[in-house]
Amino acid sequence: MSNDKLATGPRHGIVVDAAQGSEWDSFVRAQGGHLLQTDGWARLKQQHGWQPYRIAVVEQWPGRILAGALLLYRNLGPLRLAYIPRGPIVDWADLPMVRQLFKAIHRHARAHRAITLTIEPNCEDDSNLRQRLGRLGFVAAPPLQPRNTITVDLSPADDVILAAMKPKTRYNIRLASRKGVQVTQARNSADVAAFYTMMQETAARDQFGIHTLAYYQDAFRIFGPSASGQAALFLAYLPEQGDAPIGGLFALAQPPLGIYMYGASSERGRAAMPNHLLQWQAMQWAKSLGCTAYDMWGVPADIAAAEAVHEGDELQNVRGGLWGVYRFKQGFGGRLVNYVGAWDYDYLPLLGKLYRARRPRE
Hints:
- The chain has helices spanning 21-30, 39-46, 95-111, 127-135, 158-163, 167-178, 189-206, 213-223, 274-288, 301-307, 322-330, 349-357, and strands spanning 5-8, 12-16, 51-59, 65-76, 79-84, 114-119, 139-141, 148-153, 182-185, 231-237, 247-254, 257-265, 293-295, 335-338, 342-346.
- By secondary structure, the protein is an alpha+beta fold.
- It has two domains: 5-145 and 340-357, Aminopeptidase; 148-338, 3-Layer(aba) Sandwich (Aminopeptidase), CATH 3.40.630.30.
- The strands form two sheets. The chain has an eight-stranded mixed β-sheet with strand order 1-2-3-4-5-6-15-7, sandwiched between helices. Strands 9-10-11-12-13-8-14 form a seven-stranded mixed β-sheet, with helices on both faces.
- The longest helix is centred in the middle third of the chain and has 18 residues, at 189-206.
- It is globular and about 65 Å long.
C-alpha cells in the first residue's frame, strides 16, 4: 500500500491509503457508511485473497476526507477483479464529487489491471440513482451481497419491538426460553470452531456455501469482544443435551446498523426454536451498542419481488422452499428493503461480460 497522491486540484486532493485504522473508520461512521467499508473489513478480506486500498477525496487543508471507497482486488490469473462492497461513500447528489472520486478509482483500477469494477452502493433502490449510474458508464450486474433484505426498527422499547413481530415469532422466542434454551456469547476460538461445526451441518442440510473455519476465526479476532467489539457470536445450548451448542448466530454492528451475518443450527435442538431466541438476543446486543436498525441480511429476491404485488400468505403455495427463509425473517416485524444492487464498470468489456455470466456470490 502507498500514500501516493493520484491527482490534486485547487481545493481537493485524491489520496490512496492516506487514512487507515481509526482515522478511516471515523470518516465511515461520520458518513453513515457500512461496516463493509471499514478498516476491519479490509483487514479481514486481506487475510482471505483480497488486496485492499482506500481511495479518498480530501481537502488540501486540513486534510479532511470528503468522499472515499474501500477498494478490494482479487487476482484472476494475470488480471484482477475490483470490488467496492456497500460503497463508495459519497454524496450521490454532488455530481462533481462523484465524478472526481470515480476518476481516481478508475485510474487506480486500470493501473492494477482490473477487468471490471463492481460497486454495491449502500443505497435503497432509486430510479434517479440507477439513471445516474448508467450515465457514469455502469451496467446492472448480479449481486455479491444481498440486494433484498428486511430491517427491524430497534429504536422503540423492547416490548414495542416484540409487539411488532408476528405472533408465531413472539411465541417461539418465549417457547425457547420455556424449553430451557440458554444463550451465551463466544469468548475464544474453541467456541468459533463449535459454531463452524454447526455451519457445516446447516450448509449440507440447506445446500449453501460457507467460508473456511479460518475466515470465521479471523472475523471473530478482528471484530470480536477482545478487539473492536463490533461482533458477537451467540451460541444456544440445551443443558440436557450436553456441552455442544444447538444453534449459533454471528452478528456485526456499525451503528446505526446491526447485521445478522451468519447463522447455524443443529438438527438435535431445532424443535426448541433456538434461532428465534438467538435473533432476539442479537437485536438486544446491537441496540445496546447504539444501533437503531437490525439487518436480517438478505431474503430471496424472487419472494421479495412477489411480495410487492401479493398478499404474503399467497406466496407459500407458489414460491417453494425459499418461502421458509423469507417467512422466518419476516416474522420479526421488519421492513422490506431493496438496495440499488450491484453495478459493473468494464475496463475490458468482453472479459467483463464473461465474468458477469459466471459470477459467484461473495
